[in-house]
Amino acid sequence: MSVVAIPTRRHPGMRPARPRTGPTLTITLDLAPGPLSPRLARLVQLLGELAESGEGQLRAVEDTASGSRPAPLPATAEPSVPADHVRILAGSRMVRQGDRVVALTRIEYELLLFLAERPRRVFTRLQLLSSVWGYEHAVARTVDVHVRRLRAKLADSEVVTTVYGVGYRLADDASISVDHSS
After folding, report:
1. Rounded CA separation 51/79 (Å)
2. Which of 40, 78, 91, 97 has the fewest other C-beta atoms within 10 Å?
3. pTM (2 d.p.)
4. Does residue 78 contact residue 181 with C-beta atoms inside 8 Å?
5. CA distances from 34 to 31, 48, 75, 76 (A)
6. What are 100-120's pLDDT values in tens digits?
7. CA atoms within 13 A on the CB side of 127
8. How far apart are CA 122 and CA 25, in angstroms?
9. What is the pLDDT of residues 8-43, one digit of tens each?
């Protein structure tokens, strides 16, 4: 698998960028079958966050050289999981929804993990700011923005429920599991 970072499109109001002839950075990761090591998973997560911030694009490119390397074995040795099941792999800080990896920012990941480890409890925005962000000196509506982005990324699953006038909690029927071993 190759990871390629490509310059983004110019946004209105930005100063003209220097002309570039190709990608600014290409990173090739030859992945062995099986789970990623925690350090490699963190690198992939950080590259995804960099791409999400608008500094580039992240895309997987299959190896086109036929015969140069043996074909990798399927990475999933476990039975097929439902498409809406969310699995948090705490050791590697990855989130999987069904068979796909969901790219979350650090705060989105921490928020999801915090709620998943405390089901059936309602948290106010200030409690979440204190517990997940680690401080209370921010606008409480910051939590709303991150919950909205988390819901958008986990569109097939109803994971976070709003308790009107109070805050947020993990949905009762949320199909979610936390795996601390990987």
Report:
1. 31
2. 78
3. 0.56
4. no
5. 9, 20, 5, 7
6. 899 999 999 999 999 999 988
7. 11
8. 44
9. 555 555 555 555 555 456 666 666 667 777 777 777
